[in-house]
Specification:
5 strands, metal-binding, zinc ion binding
């Protein structure tokens, strides 16, 4: 994905975040940019499959996103930087064919729309979760 596409996507995400809603035009743009990964991400969000786990008192957070396989695995991710799923390492890191995986997109979409299931834990508990990544 080229830098112009990234700029377009960031602009759309900012607009969604500012209104906490998504228009048909914005959905079309994001679908064009992210294709099947975006379709899959919207299904995850529709199923309330995105948790934002926040540490207190720091407010630091990580997303826990439900997978779509029969096992319903959950993956820890940071929407803009990392996901623990296989697709992130294969399609994003190794092959460079995608900008992000469906779990990252689901986390970004849910956060932008205010559709995350919010879970509060102590900073110590959050640190223990992150140490297992």
């Amino acid at each position: 994905m080229n830098s112009r596409s990234i700029l377009v996507a960031e602009s759309v995400w900012r607009d969604i975040e500012s209104t906490r809603s998504v228009s048909d035009d914005q959905l079309s743009i994001l679908h064009f940019l992210f294709a099947k990964n975006f379709e899959r991400a919207t299904r995850i969000v529709d199923q309330r499959g995105v948790k934002r786990i926040s540490g207190e008192p720091s407010g630091r957070s990580v997303f826990q996103v439900m997978g779509e396989s029969r096992t319903k695995e959950e993956y820890f991710c940071f929407a803009g930087h990392y996901c623990a799923c296989y697709s992130f390492f294969y399609d994003v890191v190794n092959r460079g064919e995608q900008l992000c995986c469906k779990h990252q997109l689901a986390a970004r979409l849910a956060a932008s729309l205010g559709a995350c299931v919010d879970v509060k834990v102590s900073d110590k508990q959050l640190a223990l979760l992150l140490s297992k990544l």
